[in-house]
Amino acid sequence: MSAVCSDCAKPLAVNPRRKGTRCVACAARHRQSNLSAGERAAIAARCSAAWNVPGYRERVAASASEGQRRRMSDPVELAKVQANCRRAQSMRTGQSAESRRKISRATTEQYLGWCPVAYRPLYRSLVKSNKLRAAEAREAVFESMRVDLRRLEREHRRATCSGAILAAQALAVQITALRGILESKSGEN
Ligand SMILES: [Zn+2]
Q1: Is residue 2 part of a domain?
Q2: Same domain, 155 and 103
Q3: 3-class DSSP state for residue 82?
Q4: Fewer Cβ within 10 Å of end Cβ, the chain: N or C?
């Protein structure tokens, strides 16, 4: 048996049950990359079916928090986590306020670039308090945009008919922006 992983050349831990020549991470990657599209789809379908079984998410959450609680009751584990927190804290305080803001903006853009700023609080509240999955919350946000678009279009018609030109113009700007976002979303699917 080889002493190093045949893929990444990292030293292999002693494991009498190992059948191949790869480390755990490389073996997983290897299995993944050899899946056909059909096998991938079957795995995805199994996962999402399991995820949608009533009570399943609650059980996962409960067992995760139970595991976390057990881990934190171990003084050694607790000390590790606390050390990590302190390190993160000192890294943060080592950064300027401006660079912290920049990092936080970049992170937000990475996750929420698709979501107009005005809808971000809605998205966050859907994910946090309503416990929707990201994809479901995203759909809900788009649905809310569609509802808003229809309302703005009604208001725009009313403003135009009553000759409120400035109000109509302001509404037209919002309508154009929302339509653009919704169109690029439907182009995505
Ligand atoms: Zn490896």
Answers
A1: no
A2: yes
A3: helix
A4: C
